[in-house]
Specification:
CATH class of the largest domain: Alpha Beta
Bound molecules: adenosine-5'-diphosphate
Number of domains: 2
Largest sheet: 6 strands, mixed
Distance between the termini: 29 Å
Order of helices and strands: EEEHEEEHHHEHEHEEHHEEEEEEEEEEE
Helix content: 10-25%
Strand order of the largest sheet: 6-7-8-3-9-10
Length: 368
Amino acid sequence: MFVEVKQLSIQYPSRSTPAVDDVTFGLRAGQIGVLIGPSGCGKTTLLRAIAGLERVTAGEIRIAGQVVGSAQVDLPAEQRRVGMVFQDYALFPHLDVGQNVAFGLHHLPKSERASRVAEVLQLVGLAGIQRQFPHELSGGQQQRVALARALAPKPRLLLLDEPFSNLDVDLRERLAHEIRAILKAAQATALFVTHDQLEAFATGDFIGVMHQGHLHQWADAYTLYHQPATRFVADFIGHGVFAPATLREVGKRLVVHTPLGDLTDVASLAPGLVEGDYDVLLRADDIVHDDDAPVKAEIIRKAFRGSEFLYTLRLASGEIVMAHVPSHHDHKIGEWIGIRAKVDHIVTFARGGTDEAEGSGLPQGIHG
Ligand code: ADP
């Protein structure tokens, strides 16, 4: 691993619980990681510790094999060769783009400096704008200049702290894709912090979901979505609900009884699962609108998402589920529609478990 974070804990002296608690993950050279989680979960603290801006309490941080941070070692930030991009761009308003990008290049002779500036501006798709000033640029352009400035000194690792959060929602996801492409072209190793799932999915090769200082899961987006390691991850990623389910062996097959009817065909998918009571994760993608389905549900909320609606539905039994329905099926709130479950990946948790990373919140079976 090029970047290794091992059993890392960071405790602010003024607080009773660690801001980062026993976190382990790694990135290979050229990979992009994203830390995601609700406000206060510790992601900024973790990023700042890697940059050399927070002291490590326990565990260690290695870059290219070298310990840069541990309880004993605290390599100064400027010696870590780590670049940072912040949400507020932090461009110098009185310097033009060329001078901004050249900021970390004072060690280079003037001509090399100019050619490196031209090279990174080209890389971020802003060739030739050296003489413009930050206020003449759009928010998205300013953020790409900030990225060019961070890339210019060829850092070993780039850290990006909510780099899109000051931008319009529409622009955000597009820029996230663009910046991913730029980082891949530069073969940069990067770690982002965000609280936005779309952004995380658009940028990360690996995504780490944090909650209360713990890293609940470090995985690619597909795995996070379909094989959430904890209830917290299942809840935080995507739209879904937990519904009570009972597993029974019928003949040689396991059948999952849910409020939406029986899910059969599960036995082959769930070798480790045994009979019992569980909570099963029902994603909005798992619920299909079907007028012929025997199960009906009342629409209690709906949100337009372009090609589809996200319906929140209540079954006669009172259970709430969510469903993605193509937007040409425009039903009214209060209407009852037929639904059925079409679950490709069965994710079950112990009935009534908690959100904790350890213990009863751990999934009983993830299959598919
Ligand atoms: P996030 O980036 O996920 O919002 P932070 O890393 O900023 O979370 O904060 C994690 C926890 O540490 C929070 O409870 C926050 O209040 C606390 N914290 C952050 N910075 C400091 C600090 N300098 N001193 C004391 N507590 C802090």
